Amino acid sequence: MPDWVVKQAGKEYPLRTRLLLMPILAAIFLVVLPLALVYLGRLLDRSFGWPELTSPPLTTVLGGLMVLGGWLLGVWTVYLQVDLGRGTPVPVMATQKLIVRPPYAYCRNPMALGAIVAYLGVGVLAGSVGAALLVILGATVLLSYIRVTEEKELAARFGEDYLAYRRQVPFLIPQPRRRGGASPGPKG
Predict the structure, then answer these.
(1) What are the backbone dihedrals phi and psi of residue 86, each rounded to the nearest 5 degrees, phi first?
(2) Is residue 151 part of a domain?
(3) How confident is the model at residue 182, as a pLDDT?
(4) Most CB atoms within 10 A, among 3, 72, 179, 184?
């Protein structure tokens, strides 16, 4: 991991600066990306002759629940990153404290999980096979980035605390906890 990446990630920004970034992120992730996903998904559907997969009210209810659940998980993680972690979801303003409390106690990447579920929900609402495929492609790229880059940077900044957390908490898919099992690493 290059030293400049670790140094940049270790730089703490004032709360005001972090909060000023939030409306920009919200516009991108809640408006621009879903609209682009639907547009490009439908373009793919037409190009390949894929049928529209709508079955109201099933797709409306299922897609709506996926969007809502993913969005709520995302909001929860952003709040924790800004408040407890003293950072943002953007790697340039990375969290300064390792967060291991729920939902991070259940999987190491709850924000990614929430985004994947929410955007798949958008694809279901749109009835678009192309949109679902774009989400899967985007998720593959995102999760690869996290594995290859972000996990190394976190290990460099947080050391053994992160390594212990990584050993105890699944990467993306939460697993049922055993009764009386060990807690997932350091408190925070």
Answers:
(1) 55, 45
(2) yes
(3) 46
(4) 184
Angle at 37 between CA 68 and CA 132, to 5 degrees: 75
Q: Quote the domain boundaries for residue 87.
A: 3-96+109-155
The reported pTM is: 0.88
Least confident of 3-7, 50-54, 64-68, 121-125: 3-7
CA distances to 11, 64, 92, 144, 152 from 8, rounded to whole Å, are 5, 38, 7, 21, 14
Q: Is residue 185 part of a domain?
A: no
CB neighbour list of residue 114: distance below 8 Å, 6 or more residues apart: 69, 70, 71, 72, 73, 74, 76, 77
Opening angle at CA 110, ends 181 and 114, nearest 5: 135
Given a cut of 60, whether residue 138 has pLDDT beyond it is yes
Into how many domains does the chain fold? Answer: 1
Torsion sign over Cα 78, 158, 91, 139: negative
CA distances from 149 to 41, 142, 169, 172 (A): 28, 10, 18, 16
Three state DSSP letters for 2-13: CHHHHHHHCCCC
Long-range contacts of 162-167 (CB under 8 A, 24+ apart): 162/98, 165/98, 165/100, 165/108, 166/108
Cα–Cα distance measured from residue 178 to residue 188, given in angstroms and rounded to the nearest whole number? 21
Whether 119 is covered by a domain: the verdict is yes
Please report whether residue 85 resides in a domain. Answer: yes
